[in-house]
Amino acid sequence: MNPTYDVIVVGAGHAGSEAAAAAANLGSRVLLITMDMTKIAQMSCNPAMGGIAKGQIIRELDALGGYSGVVTDQSMIQFRMLNRSKGPAMWSPRAQCDRMKFSRKWREQLERIPNLDFWQDKVERLLIKNDTVYGVVTDLGISFHGKTVIVTAGTFLNGLMHIGSTQIEGGRAGEAAAKGLSGQLLAHGFETGRMKTGTPARIDGRTIDYSQLREQPGDDKPGQFSFMPLEGVLEHERSCYITFTDRNVHGILEKGFDQSPMFNGTIDSIGPRYCPSIEDKIVTFSERNSHQLFLEPEGEHTVECYLNGFSSSLPWEVQYEGIRNLPGFENAKIFRPGYAIEYDYFSPTQLQYTMETKKISNLFLAGQVNGTTGYEEAGAQGIIAGINAHQKVNDLQEFILNRDQAYIGVLIDDLITKGVDEPYRMFTSRAEYRLMLRQDNADVRLTELSYNLGLASQYRYDLLTGKVQHRDHVLSFIRQHSTSPEEINPLLKNLDTSEIKQKRKLVDILLRPQVNIYQLIEHVPGLHSIYERLPGRRDEIMEAAEILIKYSGYIDREKEIAGKLNRLEHLRIGPDFNYDKLQSLSFEARQKLNRVKPRTIGQASRISGVSPSDISVLLIHFGR
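RESULT FIELD:
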């Protein structure tokens, strides 16, 4: 063990794992402290990665050199590209994973990093002097000194679980809560609050009648998250299944509402509006006769299943009776009931863009302690915190992603500018430049930045440059090649779109909404020859070229808008500026601006309660 580390990471969940890996791969001496080394990057809730907007984040993590995408590919048992029927800005990869294998693969990745040490223990308090953190003290009474500390405690800070009237202190089922840190930071002036989330019962898959459920298989041609070529991806695919509640099930669950901690006042913390418990759904959507549920396997070689959509804090007997009245679940057995969990979080407006706290120097916070929810959001914060902890130790420039560069940039800007009034989850609607921030081009957007930083490897960078060269070759052929009526009309006739009477550029044909690039590959020998000669990742390259052709006008317009708005991002505001002296600002604007302390006029414009007229006042004051 080292006497002093460059970076100490508290917690080995998704945020902590990405943070530790990033800092160590950049060259820092890192200590990762976790309460249980067998549960690194544990999937506490749903054993799945990605989904709407979340899939984009995983691909961005991979493009930066993180491990979430690689580990997902190594452990997934189903892959689906969601929203294929919509435009490419909405396409989002999602994978069902083997829960145990996922954690094991993460640990293997971390153990391959030479300058990353591990310590199994619980952090009791931080070592702070003159508003600067310099280490931690554990439950065993051991002090570790560190130049920076990253706290990624997840749901463990004063965690309290609820199953009906039963309350159990803990960070998740079977694990102890972490105490001390919240109170210590509260004493240093931090704003803290309570949030809650929930998880459903786990089901014995041997007791389910699958003939009554609707099967939901994965894609016929499953993809992967990582831009790296991996072997053995998705060797044994498993299906998910869909069932529905009905009025009878709702009536059974309603009998336990008086014992539900959500309705009897036991829980008054903030919960996720977009991922409600089954109790919430029955009350909020009382006009609905049924709600869709997904039965999802927990792994490749286990019968344990996750009942997605049925999270609950009702007494276990009520949960059990409700489950047994679902179609196909008449003989169901459960391994453990669902529960709600309350935990402490810190208002993210107390953070800088680097994830370092404003009140205590060298202290970084990442993950659910900042009021977010989801593995993907946690990992995104973790990698940014890990990178910037390393940068600060070495007096290097901070690493910040803007809103037009990545969903990760949108996430962090939303957190520190707007704060949270419920557990934050990423949606595509949060990104104003989502056509630029697609899942297919995350490597094009971010890998060179990471390579210049020293995180992305030479091999990864070479893969990117090769992909771009092949994509541009395809683009050049499609834009320059002229196709004849004899060559292309059979396809156009079959697609019921107007035939051509003379040669036309292939790009004009591809721009038709009825035509896709794979149809052209089948009918244009030159394009087919290029496709066959591609050295791998053929579909990824072809789809990238097709998107750039079909959506070039929209993408260019989005870039133009981003360019105009980014001018405000370059108008800096000093961190100690006193907005109270600008009486032309509204009272609410002065309050919000003094609280958030925006770095730029652009950030100020996104603060709730700051109006366009307030921004005009700032522009005039700063001579703009």
